[in-house]
Specification:
The complex is a heterodimer of chains A (588) and B (475). Chain A has 588 residues and is of the alpha+beta class. Helix content of chain A is 35%, strand content 23%. The N and C termini of chain A lie far apart (90 Å). Chain B is an alpha/beta fold. The chains are: A alpha+beta (588), B alpha/beta (475). Chains A and B meet through strand 1, helix 1, helix 4, helix 6 and helix 11 of A and strand 6, strand 12, helix 6, helix 7 and helix 10 of B. Bound molecules: adenosine-5'-triphosphate and magnesium ion.
Amino acid sequence: MANEVGKITWISGPVVRARGSRHVGMLELVEVGEDRLVGEVIGLKGDQMTVQVYEETAGMQTGAPIYGTGLPLSVELGPGLMQSIYDGVQRPLPLIEQAVGSFITRGARFDPISREKKWKYTPKANVGDEVKGGTILGVAMETDTFEHRVMVHPDDKGALTWVAPAGEYTVNDTIAKIKTGKEEKSVTMLQRWPVRRPRPFVQRRGANIPLITGQRILDTFFPVAKGGAAGIPGPFGSGKTVTQHSIAKWADAEVIVYIGCGERGNEMTEVLQEFPHLVDPRSGRPLMERTVLIANTSNMPVAAREASIYTGITIAEYYRDMGYHVALMADSTSRWAEALREVSGRLEEMPAEEGYPAYLAGRLAEFYERAGYVENLNGSQGSVSVVGAVSPPGGDFSEPVTQHTKRFIRCFWALDKSLASARHFPAINWLDSYSEYIEDVANWWREKTGKDWLGMRTKAMELLSEEARLSQIVKLVGPDALPYAERMVLETSRLIREGILQQNATDSVDAYSSVEKQIRLLELVLYFHERGMAIVKRGAPINLIHDLPVVDTIIRAKSSVTNEEIDKLDDIQKMIDQQMGQLDAEYR
Amino acid sequence: MSEATVLGGQEVVGVGRIEGPIMVVEGAANVSYDEVVEIQDSKGNLRRGRVLEVGEGVAVVQVFAGSTGLSIDGTRVRFLGATLHMPVAEEMLGRIFDGLGTPIDGGPEPLTDVYRDVNGQPINPTARIYPRDYIQTGISTIDGVNTLLRGQKLPLFSGAGMPHDQLAAQIVRQATLGRVAGAPQTEGEEFAIVFAAMGVKNDVADYFRKSFTESGALTRVAMFLNLADDPPVERIVTPRAALTLAEYLAYDLGKHVLVVLTDMTNYGEALRQISNVRGEVPSRKGYPGYLYSDLASLYERTGRIRTSQGSITQIPILTMPNDDMTHPMPDLTGYITEGQIVLGRELYYAGVYPPVTVLPSLSRLMKDGIGKGRTRDDHPRWGAQLYAGYAKTQDIRALASVIGEEELSEVDQKYLKFGRAFEREFVNQAFTENRTIERTLEIGWKLLSMLPKGELTRVTLDEIKQYYKGDDASS
Ligand SMILES: Nc1ncnc2c1ncn2[C@@H]1O[C@H](COP(=O)(O)OP(=O)(O)OP(=O)(O)O)[C@@H](O)[C@H]1O
Ligand SMILES: [Mg+2]
């Protein structure tokens, strides 16, 4: 157990200093004061150690002891993670509530993973097998349908001398024994992993399969690949959280890790209350069954907020190692950066830009680097896709967190205050956003839908940028001054904006668009454009096109046509044919 | 420097250094972080303070009342051995306190043995109930398009001289638990009100007191007043004291509590001042890097929890310096609260009351408290349509200012009329006018009926059939 390694000499918020550093290591987990609050050694100098404390330090005194543990800050990994909600240092919030009530008090400590719960376990390896880090020893049913693949710890290897028969086991029960050299080691379903150290894999693979989110502006226009990293910056109220919630709900990942990092309590409660009742459109199971939540809300201790990102991504990597596709959401990375800044300020480190420490960029890079589509130690493939929200002060993207984040992501979903004010949601600006995965995933779209997604997307983007140019002119002289062909561009662009880009997260039909529906809608709008353009070029006045009843039908299709009945979009195409046909005949 | 341990804590005579509201005390042993201290000046007057930082035998103390009149040698500091606590009791409703929670209405100290830490503790997210019950404020721009729910934090972003106090007073006066449109008004349980003033002028406090008196609410109000001429550092404690009482009323006694905090901008300034004196590295505009976390520690003390009937709803008021919404105070507030109601100069000068600029205003929780079974089925789409229409009006106004109104298309001209009517009939209402939700919806439909049906793409065709009153027969 922990023994005393020092005495506190200085306290300022979440940072304490103590004397006695010879007995602890850098980044060692320590227990601080008589209440044994969780802390981590973040600095050593002479006989002084600096510790960041993951709980409220009010009431703590100088002279109080610090206990060492000899271990780095780690998470527990094993069956039981799924459907859990933890704070930033993996303390299970439901158990804390049971024990101490509605408010989080200090010093409450529980096992992150239940020691009592039994899991239905089936071995997949045999006595005599040579195993190494990542080898799958067996599977435990973590939910009715989710297979938790129990793996050898990355640092272990050897020959199996014993395997447990199929049965029900707790995470403390031995399920195998491995002989390494002369030593025999008992293996359980539980492992620990230091959060700040990426879990190992064999090699990275190209990221060329899109993470399908069911959000049209993302999938169709600015796709992120599985194993990719995306940033979603935006001023307050522009839609970072709603977008991340939508991705967490509908993305075609097998595991979701959602980190509420310095954000609102109610938002986590919303997820907790909503996800068990929402059904995964692919598995037909409640969404909660594939979700792990980390909630370190804005009023919870700031140092634990800093840790929450690492706790989350380590859990994500663990499921990746089993061969799953994991999507991780972090809302908001700016609050994590601010936690860094706060601790750095208390350490009186030399600040760089806007008070942030000089190592901000390095820390961001380390975090986003942990995203990836990889070949695992056990030969399987898995991925961690990362979506980080950024909350720039005043909505100004030139600030350090946004700027540094941009260096480490390849997909940028720029939220726009003016779109949000006009209630154009998601308020992702199509001219400021970009994805570097477009070429990479084009092939997937071709194979999946048999359609030229890349060509259609390019066409739609051309129309939208043309619209932006024309709008400048319209602002100066009004629309009537434009030739009909250009006004046709404006008409179609409106259809793209209102019929495709806008997507209401609160509408049960519109919230999730299947890939088929997305491409079909796009095709329909471009078809409308092509037919309309032909007609106006022959001199038909633009209002005739504008007033066609099918325009309204197309705009409403996103919420009137469900994913199950996309055939109805064919009917809309017929309406286009019929209504345009009439005009066509008149102006021939 | 001598040291003596007296009843209730150790005492140190003489301090090492005094700088602004900060004092460095040497020679005290075993001081706790965030502990309360009692400071006696050479004349024997008492004031209170709080430990901001401790080292071995050294404590950095923040003096709430400021350090004026304190001397290096003649000051005695007593460490009280606990963080700042205050008594809480139901009978505090109807009473007036200073910024630290001491009665200033001539009445006695509240008789209770319940003491609470003013810093509170974070609500466990698993213990919360997600807010769903709407509060009818009788104000169309709120009930209609920025609906306030019980357990929500929704600030008023205003500017100097604008009628935010009136609006807050009107909300407090008219707030009742919402009901489904068409259902009879039931005698709702009344809100308890906790009012905290930070650095506002005496006439603002008086205005609220008068307003509470006139509406007969005074017995349900607890007022915590730190006025413009009160010590700025005390302001750090004022909202915490108010929220500590609010939490007791809501979560221990099961009351629905409405908390009004004004003016949070002054609170922020006090925080900045202390940070600057301590030489902390500033982030933006001299505000400390922890401003976000500090504000969150106040605003997040809002909500509902599963073990209680009660709720805390917060309406913080901020005057934005230079009407600038990107200033750190409104900016970081907006990042924490669940939306914002923004008052605008233009409407104010145009004589519109309340001058709520609808486009930048937002209630994030609205979607969960309106619609079928809560207000009326069409409400969400109706709201979206009104917004979209009014947003479009803004673009058309810009265009009209260039090419002239006459040059606008017929539809655009309709939008201009719609926009004007929206401001005059929907946004504008009397200070005494308490609109039902039906009335608000009705006005909205009347306005939407000024537009061609084909423009109304956010509402359903059935809704158009049922509520649209326009003479447009085209599409
Ligand atoms: N796709 C969407 N569909 C419908 N409404 C949306 C959508 N996206 C955003 N909104 C609206 O915008 C509001 C604000 O969105 P959200 O809470 O996601 O903002 P945010 O960027 O996370 O803000 P903050 O930084 O303050 O947390 C929501 O409450 C909702 O009303
Ligand atoms: Mg958010």
